[in-house]
Amino acid sequence: MAQAMPADNPFLNFPWGPIQMECEAQDLVIEGEVPKDLHGTLYRAGPNQRFRPRGDYHLFAGDGMVHAFHIAEGRVDYINRWVRTAKFNIEDMEGRAVINAMNPFDCDPDYAEFTLADKEGLANTAAVWHGGRMLVMEEGHRPYEIDPLTLDSIGSWTFRGKLHTAMTAHPKIDPATGEMVFFAYMATGPFSEDVMVHKVNADGVLTQSIHIPTPYSAMVHDFVITENYIVIPIFPITGSLERAMEGGPPFAWEPSKGVHVGVLPRNADSAEGIRWLEMDNCFVFHFMNAFDQDGVITVDAAQFTRAPLFPTLEGETTGEVSSQLCRWTIDLSNPDARVESTPLDDFELEFPQIDLRYAGRPYRHGWYTTTDGQLKSDMEVNQNLYNTIGYWDHQSNEALTYSCGRSMVSEALFVPRSDDASEGDGYLLAVTIDFDTRLSSLLIFNALDITAGPIARANLSHRVPPGFHGTWRPAQ
Ligand SMILES: [Fe+2]
Q1: What is the mean pLDDT of residues 195-201?
Q2: Is 39 marked within a binding site?
Q3: Does pTM top 0.85 for this prediction?
């Protein structure tokens, strides 16, 4: 019999906590009108812990669940499924948690070797539709393939045996060629000082893997591509087996190591072509976009002054900090160039998004998630929860926002009105949790007019826990 979740862990209780069901809801009740030209599926991926966890639990350790909203002819159908990773299947069979994904030394004795040998991970962070496959990623393990319609688990995907590393949760797809570029950090073993960059063509064939030694062993969450370059930032969240074996934190914020930004030409076939540039200390989980023009690379980032909530070498934590939209400039014509970062404004933002047809190219429109301070977490004093969607115009350098009031709101994804619609002409999709009813809705906005509020709202009779990232698959 499954046990109750511990009441004292914020990530296992409202609003973060898991739901204990898989379900389908046909023909959701709609307020407003779902545009008839919106035809495809929105996927949301996130942690949804199946059983009362062993030991300490962090949101990053939850079993992955995917939620899908199939949209056609003004109608919305919903489905959710756990991803049947090896960990999920073992615990489903045992009827309890026997594996601690955050601490390999805290597994049930029968599964003592599991965490170190596992290749499938948690599949709980993001999804991407590429080469005819729907892949769900974590970042420390391989991607996991699911059926795009039924969400049935298919299995860990290795690109026909060619992928020998993990896969970041933030692959990039070149809109001109359809090529997907992604990387893995600590690519050749625990705490190794390297990354592996992989390229997959539009047909889903892995065509190239480039091994790149890095200045030190680091956790790397996101990166960017431009038309001609791959930009891999190494921020000083360092990993150290030695430190862990001495009882210290395996991962720690170590600013003395400095930030090193690797710039690799897209046409390079080895790490020889990489150039490392330094920059002032900062930290970025997510980038908005990047492009190169006339030998200058521009990168837009949701930039923190330091990594939030990480242990320091001294055994303290870095505390809470918020991120701002910053523009990096990398002048490749200057042999002494550093990466220069300039704030574009001072509002808080996370989950930056764009019209992906402009990924890696000069662009105008960006969207993000933020807070207006109205919605606080019950569990952690004064912590603002994201309840606001933002729009940033790189032409006017102005922001617009729409507050969802007492509803928490997810990352907002852009969907073009048609294949040939101009940049930003389309819809913005986000999922909310109403703190009064504790129910979720899918909101649909006109992407360039978010202040008018949603043009349609599809209501669920349950809650979609706050996940991390999602993706859109156009109707085939
Ligand atoms: Fe992310």
Answers
A1: 98
A2: no
A3: yes
